[in-house]
Amino acid sequence: MAKIKLEYIWLDGYFPTQNLRSKTKVEEHENFKGTLEEIGNWSFDGSSTRQAEGGSSDCLLVPVAIYPDPDRINGYLVMTEVMNADGTPHVSNGRATIDDDDNDFWFGFEQEYFIMDTATGLPLGFPIGGYPAPQGMYYCSVGGKNTHGRDLVERHADLCIDAGLNFEGINQEVASGQWEFQLFAKGAKLAGDELWIARYLLDRLTEQYGYYIEYHPKPLGKDMDWNGSGMHANFSNTTLRTCGDKDVYATICEAFRPLVKEHIAVYGEFNDQRLTGLHETAAITDFSWGISDRGASIRIPLIAVEKGWKGWLEDRRPASNGDPYKIAGRIIKTVKSAKV
């Protein structure tokens, strides 16, 4: 019998921006294969996470995905859903809002973020009491003058790959200390699971560096001339991947137009500071779509057009602090409402 460490991970009840929580359960197993069938539910004190009252504080943790923990011996990362004591989804459970049981929807998320120095509270590369050179030279840069935090970012990429996530890439972003990673999954729930696990690995890794990750979409202030951080949602279903019809793409894009408020409501806190119509964004009150237009709400990738209107769409509005579960759930609902 070997002892294994199961890190149960969940989202708390803070609103509108939830936080990752986790705790370790040590169990003895013989020939553990790392499957959900081998582990059980757990519980936690919901009164400490804004998910229950003290008089009846137990909330259930139901495992939905499990991955090897590359930073622990005999360790596993267990993504869970929060359930009420009667087994129904907790109100904070965004995963339960996703209507994609057949995994017809594929999602690719582009997670932008700032690496912050804990000692100064500033992004890497920012001097105390001032500002670095204007943005422009940082995007996809190389060299110590413009590139800050590569050690952390490279280590995070390795951890995600070693954990078995479908990790697709990294790059430094437009502002100093700003980076991005990309994940893709066939199935909206799986895409959300993997993004949250990737965030968990990134946040935990910063403990070794004296850094923290800032997911606020405009951490330097809404009036600063720096790009904000988003989490662009690339999505497709069978229709988008195979239709070969420009009019179908237009119909699906137009289905989003009357639902701007519903989407913005789940696309992340403080997104009004980022979606100003500047810095490669559309204004938060507007809706637009276009081919290869990074200033539009929804971009039709040029490659989809070149392939004969077969591919995907990119919703550029979600903020970096958004919940991928809620974002995916809302996108799926809107796409399914399109009359195609």
Automatic annotation (TrEMBL):
It catalyses: L-glutamate + NH4(+) + ATP = L-glutamine + ADP + phosphate + H(+). It is found in: Cytoplasm. GO terms for cellular component: cytoplasm. Residues 89-340 form the GS catalytic domain. Keywords: ATP-binding, Cytoplasm, Ligase, Nucleotide-binding. Its main location: cytoplasm. InterPro entries: Gln_synt_N, Gln_synt_N_sf, Gln_synth/guanido_kin_cat_dom, Gln_synth_cat_dom, Gln_synth_N_conserv_site, Glutamine_Synthetase. Its EC number is 6.3.1.2. GO terms for biological process: glutamine biosynthetic process. It is an enzyme of class 6 (ligase). Residues 4-87 form the GS beta-grasp domain. GO terms for molecular function: ATP binding; glutamine synthetase activity. Belongs to the glutamine synthetase family. Homooctamer and homotetramer. Catalyzes the ATP-dependent biosynthesis of glutamine from glutamate and ammonia. PANTHER family: GLUTAMINE SYNTHETASE (PTHR20852), GLUTAMINE SYNTHETASE 2 CYTOPLASMIC (PTHR20852:SF57). This is glutamine synthetase.
